[in-house]
Amino acid sequence: MLQVSDLSVAIGDKTILHDINLAIEPGEVHVLFGPNGSGKSTLLGALMGFARYRVLKGSIRLKGEEIVGLPVHERARRGIGLAFQRPPTIRGLTMRQMLAICAGDGVNAEELAACLRFERFLDREVNAGFSGGELKRSELMQLMAQSPDLVLLDEPESGVDLENIALIGRAINYLLGRRVGAPAGKSPRQVRQECVKAGLIITHTGYILDYVNADVGHVLYEGRISCSGNPRELLRCIHELGYGACVRCTF
Amino acid sequence: MCAVYILGPERVGTVAKNSDPGYTTEAPEHTYLEDPAALPEEDRRRMLAVGVDAGDTRRSGTFLQMDHSVVHCGVRQEGLEVMGIDEALAGYPWVQDYVWRALDAAQDEFTAYAQDRSRSGYFIRALPGVKAVYPVQACLYLARERLAQCVHNIVIVEEGAELHIITGCASGQRVMSGLHLGVSEFYVKKNAHLTFTMIHNWAEEMEVRPRTAVIVEEGGVFLSNYICLSPVRLLQTNPVAYLRGEGAVARFNTVLVAPPGSFMDVGSQVFLAAERTRAELIARTVTTGGGIINRGLLVGEKAGVKAHLECRGLLLTSDGYIRAIPELEARVAGAELSHEAAVGKIAPEEIEYLMARGLDEDEATATIVRGFLNVRIEGLPEELERQIDRALEVSKVSAM
């Protein structure tokens, strides 16, 4: 699905990411750990193609196609969807209209909103005055309308209260085409094999791992992927030793 | 030919510098039509573009003026009166008391000019307690090239009555230039309600100077929507509402798009002269290369009055400019007046946000601009909403 090779990215004159290599297969969910300022959001922004992130070298292939140089909307149309960490407010545009934009054609806004208990926000302006948790639900609802093949989530659980975190988890599983519990007649393995959607999730706390089964974890430290492996083990290591010690194990 | 001399450029901005002051005051008479549907198709289309539908049944009344001639007027609801101002003055001697009452003819050169030379204009009145089911529409149409069209309009909404007027001002297909000078005086009586929606769609070389004043009595409500999305060489207007009665309310929504070559100096003013009066002025302006001055003035004359003024401007190109001039004047302690003004370009994060949802850059920009201009305008006919959308589409293309 996604193949990132030797990718280096700068903001202005400052190189933020160095020689990133990352491969996400269809059906896989990867999580990205890392301290503040390690470059996690920069990586997602570079994958999406935002202007402030300048690719210095390397390649990003989506379903085999090089996308470095493609404008943001072309990447979106090819199947990348990003849930923003801090999305802007769009005045005069309602959530309902935004969902229609995301879907590109007809969309059942009520049904989507019901999934995220977001009905009463449908006729409000996009992100206007939303709380942290409401912004997360707004972003996930938009992605559900967009239905991307590669789902990029930037801290989907931050600012979400305990009551809503399970809701967020369910929405993410829905986005990734994963169901909770195998449907009748199919083993979990079969279900997994049928999944074609892929995800890359930034998480600080790791809480989201209680709700979403991630396959691979990566630690991004000072702009480099310093460690990859089982996401739960990585998280435990980070919790116990902190990032500084955790990344040393690779040296 | 009679020359009309306009104000010097120091008063109206840079675009007026090359203006030719010569206009003609004479135009041929246009025949009165019993059925406005008999108007030529092209004229009807241009009227429709400003919200005036000559064939629409969902109107409580219609007034059409071409150049100096009233070509049609009629009402569909009892208790409403729609006629030319001359007819009103002839039929009701008391109407004279309303002429030059809200406005002072000595205000400026244009009102002074209009005092002697205005020709026609509308008289619209809702009798006490009458609630108009549909809007009354009025169109002031300029068909003669280089004509100075000067009208005097009077609107009276009597006690407890409710009225929505849609005024469209437009010019004919072959008209390139002209002067439109509309003097309008509105009287909103006790507990009456007037919504006044005005859409302008002039020829590119037009000079337009509406002069409007409104007196609102106790418990009365005046809502104004002013929309100009098409090129106009010079537009200068600064309507004023006097809230004279306790609890009176005024709200002005202004939506302007200035293409290259256009200069718009548009404001609104409210004098909160009675207890518990309230006002809100909301302006959204966009330049795609033209110049905009957006004024707003709130004057609080009684303690406890409350008013807010909001000017927001968007520059879509590096040509053109927007100057926002919000003014607040409290004449007593305890007048609560506030303003918010912001002028700038579209935030790139907003464009990228919409691009991440699949819109290309032009579509994203247009969506943001349309949202930006989307002030809540009640009771706009569908055709008008589509027209606004189209105008935005066009301005988007010229902006990119």
In short:
Chain A is α/β, with parallel strands linked by helices and 251 residues long. Chain A has helices at residues 40-48, 72-77, 95-103, 109-115, 132-146, 162-175, 188-194, 231-248; strands at residues 2-11, 14-24, 29-33, 53-62, 65-66, 80-83, 90-94, 125-126, 150-154, 198-202, 216-221, 224-229. Chain A has a single domain, classed as Rossmann fold.
Detailed description of the structure:
Chain A has one domain: P-loop containing nucleotide triphosphate hydrolases (Rossmann fold, 3-Layer(aba) Sandwich), CATH 3.40.50. In chain A, 34% of the residues lie in helices and 28% in strands. Chain A has 8 helices and 12 strands. Chain A has a 6-stranded mixed sheet with strand order 6-9-10-3-11-12, sandwiched between helices. The longest helix of chain A has 18 residues, at 231-248. The mean pLDDT of chain A is 88. Chain B is α/β, with parallel strands linked by helices and 400 residues long. Chain B folds into 2 domains: 1-204, no CATH class; 238-400, no CATH class. Chain B is 17% helix and 42% strand. Chain B contains 7 helices and 23 strands. Chain B has helices at 9-12, 41-48, 85-91, 109-117, 348-355, 361-373, 382-399; strands at residues 2-3, 22-23, 61-66, 69-75, 80-84, 122-126, 136-142, 148-157, 162-171, 177-188, 193-201, 205-208, 211-216, 221-228, 234-237, 240-243, 249-258, 263-272, 278-287, 291-300, 306-315, 321-330, 336-344. In chain B, strand 3 (61-66) and strand 4 form a beta hairpin. The chains are: A alpha/beta (251), B alpha/beta (400).
